[in-house]
Amino acid sequence: MKLGWSDVTPKAMWLSRRAFVSGLGAMMAAPSLARASFSTDEAPNSFEEITNYNNFYEFGFGKEDPARYAHMLRPEPWAVAIDGLVERPGSYSVADLAPENTVEERIYRLRCVEGWSMVIPWLGVPLGPILERAGVQPGARYVAFETLLDPDQMPAQKTRSMPWPYVEGLRLDEAMHPLTILATGLYGEAMPNQNGAPIRLVVPWKYGFKSIKSIVRISLTEEQPPTTWQRLQPQEYGFYANVNPDVDHPRWSQATERRIGAGLFAGRQPTEMFNGYAEHVAHLYAGMDLARDY
């Protein structure tokens, strides 16, 4: 028997969800800014490259481990809780948050902190309107995100290699920026398990580890939330994690990157400030010391 969301969500939260979705539909139907300029004209990596070379440590630490083990993940049914400093907390399905008629394609650069990069054609929706409909309270300054915690589906969570579940965070203005999306697919298909099914964050001007996968909770907070890599190695991984060729990782340079799929003799290419999105996002960090607030 197929469960409805009223079956898996407490009734009060389900009623809140219905009001939220009704308003979200009206918001998404309203005219919005043209977003074609947000997509790069660079050629995307192949589907095979994107789905077979990536980090998703819940399935192992090898680049091929996510593709090898992510079949264990069950992306349906799925609920994402929106809570914290919002007027209308609730629990929502992926279809609630990203109705098919609102999904856009965004061809974004992806820059990993490890020094490699890709170009990926995501499908998704801007995060900002979702937060607006949830009713951001005046005291909210940050947005915290949390990945599914289920060792039966994510076998590496049975180890103590990292503090589980994986958590991440953005400043509120970063989360509201139109470049920031919740992605539900790539290459015109539903999100593959190994890339963060059924719904993940994509923030293209930041290193890839900020774009948390398989999200189950989005919380609005007053205080800066903890993040997994800050907990593990705060001297190496800052809260902002903006792509910056002038600020090296303590163990390697960030000035250049290796484009996956470019070929054995392609060499490395220069890394762009904010991963090439400076014209859209540099104003968010005006007056900040980006070497200190890395």
Brief descriptors of the model:
five-stranded mixed β-sheet, disordered N terminus, alpha+beta, globular, 294 residues
Task: Tell me what you see in this structure.
The protein is α+β, with helices and mostly antiparallel strands and 294 residues long. 20% of the residues lie in helices and 21% in strands. It contains nine helices and twelve strands. The chain has helices spanning 5-8, 11-29, 47-52, 65-69, 94-97, 127-134, 172-176, 228-232, 278-281, and strands at 80-84, 90-92, 104-111, 116-126, 142-147, 167-171, 181-186, 189-190, 200-202, 215-221, 256-259, 269-270. The strands form two sheets. Strands 3, 4, 7, 8, 9, 11 and 12 form a seven-stranded mixed beta sheet that branches. It has a five-stranded mixed beta sheet with strand order 2-1-10-5-6. A hairpin with a 5-residue loop joins strand 1 (80-84) and strand 2. Helix 2 (11-29) packs across helix 6 (127-134). The longest helix is centred in the first third of the chain and has 19 residues, at 11-29. The chain is globular. It starts with a helix and ends in a 13-residue tail after the last helix. Mean pLDDT is 91; it is low at 1-15 and 26-34.
How can the largest sheet be summarized? 7 strands, mixed
Strand-residue proportion:
15-25%
Number of helices: 9
- Backbone shape: globular
Instruction: Find the structural class using helix and strand composition.
Output: alpha+beta
Low-confidence stretches: 1-15, 26-34
Helix percentage = 10-25%
Order of secondary-structure elements: HHHHEEHEEHEEHEEEEHEEH
Mean pLDDT: 91
Rg for CA atoms:
18 Å
